[in-house]
Amino acid sequence: MDNLIFLIVAAVFLILILWNVVRIVPQNTAYIVERLGKYSKTLEAGFHLLIPFIDKVTYKHSLKEFAVDVPAQQAITKDNVALGVDGVLYMRIMDPKAASYGIENLVFAITQLAQTTMRAEIGKLSLDQTFESRENVNATVTHAIDEASAVWGTKVLRYEVKDISPPTSILDEMEKQMAAERERRVAVTTSEGYRQAQINQAEGDQQATVLRARGEADAVEIEAAARAKAISVIADALSREGGTTAIAQQLSEQYIAAFKELAREGTVALIPSDGSDVTSVVSKAFTAFDTLKNQVDTVQQNNPPVGK
What we know:
By secondary structure, this protein is α+β, with helices and mostly antiparallel strands. It contains eight helices and eight strands.
């Protein structure tokens, strides 16, 4: 019975010794060991043996990147607008010894430093700049906190502003401003569309006028060419045998056709003094034609072409 009790006590004592001697440190973790109350060494990932009842693991630090939530706070902008600002801080412990002995409460200290730095940066900016320069604010706060916390063995990787909350009155004014801006854009777009439509219509009218003038010019040119060709054909016909008789016959036909048209459509009858004698009218027209032809021939004889 006594032997059994002794074995039990010995087993418990052995387990306690092993518990205080053997230390298995996980990956990306560091243990701070103190010997008789004084810093002794830093245990990294792996298997380690300690001196029982003399060495003691006092601090355990994760070497992974971790996030620290920065509570919301009031910050005053350069133009005296109170904003509610909160954020999140990403950091990593680089020196476990400094993180253990350099600061009492590392997370609390980092949080307070982030809030103070953020208030200082917001105070340098106007309300509009705080919304437009988030990236610059994040970079500035990250740099400032990283420099201040370097003695604590930490590395601040980045700071992100989660939310910026203006007062209700400012939000109402911003809504009105955005509504006015949207209305202005609609008015500008409408006026630009109307102006472009007017320009397009003016250009269309101009092009139509130009094309119409060109068409009329082409028509006059074609008509003149046709008349010139007709005159040339008539002149050639007169120079041939029987040409004079043909011209007389054509004039008679045109005379009769003209009076026929007047009788059909006109409301006023035009009766020539010798309308009963068609031969006399044709003879007069032919005599005028022959006189004009003789004058043209005389001019051509007196002014021969340069090439001849």
